[in-house]
Hints:
Blueprint: H1 16-38, H2 44-60, H3 71-115
Amino acid sequence: MVAGEPLRVVVDNVDESDETRFQTIFEANFHSVLGYALRRTATSADAADVVSETMLIAWRRLDQVPSGDSARPWLFGVARRVLANQRRGIGRQERLGDRLRVELRRALVARFIEIGCAI
């Protein structure tokens, strides 16, 4: 691989027409899906994750992606569901962090009491 060249992943048993179709869909819609994600996420890294997951789903379900101009709304629908999953995951992480902070605080207080330290 030469610096500056795009990374190319070789996948066995891929029909060249599928690869060409995906590339066409990707090139025609990447910036629109990225813009959609950027407006709905807190960071550009989160937006990149949404776009990556959206395009991965499009690749896996290539036979379900509508042709022509109908592909873009389909991709936006996928991106919307990916965003919803991402938000649920963030909510779970925050709730877990809150629970862990409470448990740690309780454990520290109990330990200080056990060893007779004033808090």
